[in-house]
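Give me the fold.
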Amino acid sequence: MTRRQSRILIAAAVWTLYVWISRIVIMSGQDESAGFKVVHGILALVSIGFALAIGKIGWDGRKRAKTESTTSAAVR
């Protein structure tokens, strides 16, 4: 995985976390039905879980790319 690809994954994870966490905060102050809150709460939890997984993949890819570039520079 290239550094660019890992940055894209990390950016997607951060954006998803921002959107859903802010949505939960906004939703908590609204007067919506319980069903609405339950459904959106489940959607938020699933999306946050995916965001954390995507972020971990991106972060690991970033560290791997950094290690590979350091290793290839030392070989030269």
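The chain has a mean pLDDT of 91.
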